[in-house]
Write a structure and sequence with these properties.
Length: 277
């Protein structure tokens, strides 16, 4: 009886832990729930907005909010169309423009987005902005943050037959879970900045490019514009002594642009299909 129970528990953990990323269909290990990630992100996001200069009323603010809403609506549309609307449950989209010279933008788990004013001279057009916002929003949709935290659980030896990790992951507010969260996002600096400066793996970057391209296309932006934008970004980096922050966390090189070129035809199909609706 006892053994059956234990076996059932392990099986549950394994089933729960192995998810697939939408669109790329890559298997990923998720040992931490959306609810937990989103709750942590919400605290960090509030802290960040309280300690930075949010630009409340400007044309640029309106553009950031408008482009963000269009991308989020495109993602919602996509998951409705594939009959999995539950995928975005618990996402509460928010888009803010922050006065800061850094060439940067990010999206925390659960859909909390920040764009820095320093990014806008490089994005130049709405489609350029849609490229960056589509990419950042895709990190959140692909649950890359949760995957990183899960990888930290595993690398710290907290996964033993699935069960220990379950205990840790479920203990929402235990100090151990908190420590792992902090480590995953590299401690020291304030929590919000850790998430903002999060370095994703190359695999996560490519995946966010892929998903972002499709969501921007569904939102009505020509995915070919993504290539133009990343070329502009590469030039901005060549012409400045210090590479833009967005590039230190989002390397742009020939390979990336090459990969995007390969992905554009698929995204163009979405662009055409959704435009004719
Ligand atoms: Zn990225």
């Amino acid at each position: 009886m006892k053994r059956t129970f234990a076996f059932g528990l392990v099986l549950t953990v394994v089933v729960w832990a192995c998810s697939r990323v939408p669109i790329s269909n890559r298997k990923q290990l998720l040992l931490v729930s959306d609810a937990e990630m989103n709750q942590q992100a919400l605290v960090s996001y509030k802290q960040f907005l309280d300690t930075n200069r949010v630009v409340n009323s400007s044309q640029s603010t309106a553009m950031v909010k408008n482009v963000g809403k269009r991308i989020a609506a495109a993602a919602t549309q996509y998951f409705n169309d594939i009959k999995h609307p539950e995928f975005l449950e618990g996402y509460n989209w928010e888009f803010n423009l922050v006065e800061d010279k850094q060439v940067n933008a990010w999206c925390m788990p659960g859909g909390k987005v920040v764009v820095y004013t320093g990014l806008l001279p490089v994005t130049q057009t709405e489609a350029g902005l849609a490229t960056v916002m589509g990419h950042e929003i895709s990190h959140a949709i692909a649950k890359h943050g949760a995957e990183r935290v899960s990888q930290a659980y595993v690398s710290q030896g907290l996964l033993v037959g699935g069960q220990v990790a379950l205990g840790v992951a479920m203990a929402n507010k235990s100090s151990q879970a908190q420590n792992i969260w902090n480590t995953a996002y590299a401690a020291a600096a304030p929590a919000a900045m850790n998430i903002a400066l999060l370095r994703y793996s190359r695999q996560h970057e490519s995946e966010a490019d892929h998903l972002g391209l499709i969501f921007m296309a569904i939102a009505g932006y020509d995915p070919k514009e993504a290539i133009t934008f990343w070329q502009r970004m590469a030039n901005a980096s060549k012409n400045s002594q210090k590479p833009p922050l967005l590039l230190s966390t989002h390397p742009s090189d020939e390979q990336r642009i090459e990969d995007l070129r390969r992905l554009v035809p698929e995204a163009e199909k979405f662009y055409t299909a959704y435009r004719s609706r």
